[in-house]
Design a protein that fits this description.
14 helices; ARMT-1-like_metal-bd_sf; ARMT1; Transcription Elongation Factor S-II, Chain A; 3-stranded mixed sheet; mainly alpha; globular
């Protein structure tokens, strides 16, 4: 990269500043979490996907080209025949032609997965259409012993007092992507941890009952699964379309789960961690709650004393997945 190109890139990146002046998180700082995702995690994912299926020459060459692009090149737009090329162009066409490292991390990360699905033939006609390239890894996790333990642990909650059961299930949802911690509760909450541990060799009968209840609820319409194109957008919820805003507004409470939803809710920006959660979510149409395991740099709503304590040991508490939070704005 020439000095002139680098300077222009810096100027473009400086314009990616969100509300209240907090800069958008980019991936161009070596050693940062965002840099590690683009420089290490994404290339490793490409290799995993490449090895997981007997892709033909066309897919393998396309995967190699994508790897070279994210490592050494600039962001290329979708082809003119891609069904969603205009949608992605509307979702920040100005990032095309930049280094992947100079685009906002939230956008670059989302676009990477769209490109990966495209190059393996997920959207096109042919034998790989609709074949999830991550299916083997998902299935391996679902069939693991940790998940079996979580399902068996449900049996202990069937006869637990309502408050204890609700607390355990809330924590399970919070730590849902950390199977070894799913139903464990904090020290000092009497009885629950022992009750869960005592049934980890029992059959998951309660899990079967819950599954049947959910199946029935979906069949009669009391539980409905919906989707919206914006859920896959590389944009913050602050930019949600009006029809989605109206739907959220009609809800008694919207619960958003996971690190990505958190980043989209408060903005994937370098906020000071004591920035009030209510300030960053005041735009949201209605009451909102988040359940999140920390796996990225973004965080708001903490007390300064909490921040000081977390920073004291020098651990990467924001990105290691060892901490979690629940935040609510009525």
């Amino acid at each position: 990269m020439t000095e002139k190109t680098s300077r222009a890139s810096d100027e473009e990146a400086s314009r990616d500043v969100g509300p209240m002046g907090a800069p958008a998180i980019l991936s161009n700082e070596p050693g940062s979490f965002a840099w590690g995702v683009l420089a290490k995690r994404h290339p490793a994912l490409i290799q995993q996907v490449r090895d997981a299926f007997p892709y033909g020459r066309r897919q393998r060459e396309a995967l190699d080209a994508l790897l070279d692009e994210i490592t050494n090149g600039v962001i290329e737009p979708l082809g003119p025949l891609e069904r969603d090329n205009e949608r992605w162009a509307d979702w920040r066409r100005e990032y095309f032609g930049r280094s992947w490292y100079d685009a906002p991390f939230l956008w670059a990360e989302s676009y990477f997965y769209r490109r990966l699905l495209g190059v393996v033939g997920y959207f096109g006609a042919g034998p790989w259409q609709g074949v999830d390239p991550f299916a083997p890894f998902k299935q391996a996790e679902l069939r693991g012993e940790a998940v079996e333990e979580e399902l068996r642990a449900l049996d202990a909650l069937a006869d637990a007092p309502p408050h204890e059961r609700a607390t355990a299930l809330l924590h399970a949802s919070l730590w849902g992507n950390r199977a070894d911690l799913g139903f464990s509760l904090s020290a000092g909450e009497p009885g629950t941890t022992d009750a869960v541990t005592s049934v980890l060799t029992q059959a998951p009968g309660e899990a079967s009952r819950i599954g049947g209840r959910l199946w029935k609820a979906m069949a009669v319409g009391t539980l409905e699964v919906r989707t919206h194109p914006f859920f896959c957008a590389p944009l913050p919820y602050e930019e949600m379309p009006e029809d989605l805003r109206v739907e959220f507004e009609s809800a008694t409470l919207t619960i958003l789960k996971g690190d990505l939803n958190y980043r989209r809710l408060v903005g994937d920006q370098l906020w000071h961690p004591t920035t009030p959660f209510a300030d960053r979510t005041q735009y949201f149409p209605g009451a909102v709650a988040v359940l999140r395991t920390l796996k990225s740099d973004v965080i708001v709503g903490l007390e300064q004393e909490t921040v000081d304590a977390l920073e004291l040991d020098g651990a990467a508490w924001r990105t290691s997945g060892t901490h979690a939070l629940i935040q609510v704005r009525p």
